Amino acid sequence: MKKILMLGVLGSAAVGLYFVFKKIDSDKLSSLTDKLSSINEQLSKLEGAKEELLEKVSFLNTSFGQLGSDLVGKAGDIIQQKKQAIEDAIEEAKRMIEEEREKLRQIRAKLDEVNTGVE
Q1: SS3 for 79-110, per residue?
Q2: Tens of pLDDT, residue by residue, the chain (119 residues)
Q3: Eight-state DSSP code of residue 16
Q4: Distance between the two ends of the chain, CA-based, in angstroms?
Q5: CA 82/CA 93 separation, integer angstroms
Q6: Torsions phi, psi for 6 (to 5 deg)
Q7: Backbone angles phi, psi at 87, to 5 degrees
Q8: Exposure of 94 in the CB half-sphere (CA atoms within 13 A)
Q9: Is the alpha carbon torsion for 96, 102, 106, 108 positive or negative?
């Protein structure tokens, strides 16, 4: 009888412990599920933010590329304008030098006339 009573007490304790551990595991499982749900929400938000940032970076890359192309094109235009201005200035200087040479030729010719008339 003591054995049966002891088995009953042990059985009751075992069943009680089973339900206590089951309750603890259920609480832990619920807590872990809540934490995993929270982590999944945060990951979804981060994924959305990542996509948004990638779109912004792509837009900026495209914008910088276009601005760079525009800058190179405008710089090329400015260089061409400056080159043309320099070439025009050189041509003007050559024309002025040629005019001065012509004036000097005329002066020499007059001096030669004067010198030949004096002799």
Answers
A1: HHHHHHHHHHHHHHHHHHHHHHHHHHHHHHHH
A2: 666 666 676 777 666 666 666 666 666 767 767 887 888 888 888 888 889 999 999 999 999 999 999 999 999 999 999 999 999 999 999 999 999 999 999 999 998 888 786 65
A3: H
A4: 170
A5: 16
A6: -65, -40
A7: -60, -40
A8: 6
A9: positive
| Cα 119 from Cα 100, distance rounded (Å) | 28
CA–CA distance, 45 with 25 (Å, rounded to integer) = 30
d(CA 3, CA 64): 88
Structure tokens at 10: 């042990």
CA separation (Å) from 93 to 97, 102, 103?
A: 6, 14, 15
CA atoms within 13 A on the CB side of 91: 6
Q: Scanning the structure block, which residue is given the tokens 């006339």?
A: 113
Tokens for 105?
């030729």
Dihedral sign, CA of 91, 95, 100, 104? Answer: positive
